[in-house]
Each structure stands twice: as C-alpha cells, then as structure tokens.
Amino acid sequence: MPQHHYETFEKNGHIRTHVTVVQGEAISLCRCWRSDNFPLCDGSHKKVDDGKGPAVIHVDCEKHFLDQDEG
Ligand code: FES
In terms of residue numbers, what domain contains 44? Predict the structure, then answer.
C-alpha cells in the first residue's frame, strides 16, 4: 500500500509539486509527460516508443521532500 502523497501548488508564479514518501518506499516519477496521474508514472510511457521511462526514487532515509521545478 503506497504511503506517499503529493500536493501541487503555485509558488512565485511556478506550479510546484511536493511529494512526501516514507522510508523504504519507492515511487516512479513520470518523465514522459503522458501520465494521467502526473507527477507519478501511470505506465502510459509504455504506449509510445520514445525511450522515456520513469525516474524511480528509492527512499532509504526517514523522509524526503522532492520539489519539482526548482529554479
Ligand atoms: S507515464 Fe510517464 S514515465 Fe511513465
């Protein structure tokens, strides 16, 4: 059962997504922009053959906050 959650919001004119995961969990972040569950991969990348797959994040410390669109 996934324990991660994410929140998308606007900050300083940019859309940001914060993903919270727990120790021992792995999540897959979409890199193809086709996921209906963006920023998480839903497997939609398999429908096209462009060589892009997810960024798989394995968490081995207590908590991480990933900030998409930094900078
Ligand atoms: S759906 Fe985009 S990488 Fe999987």
Answer: 5-67
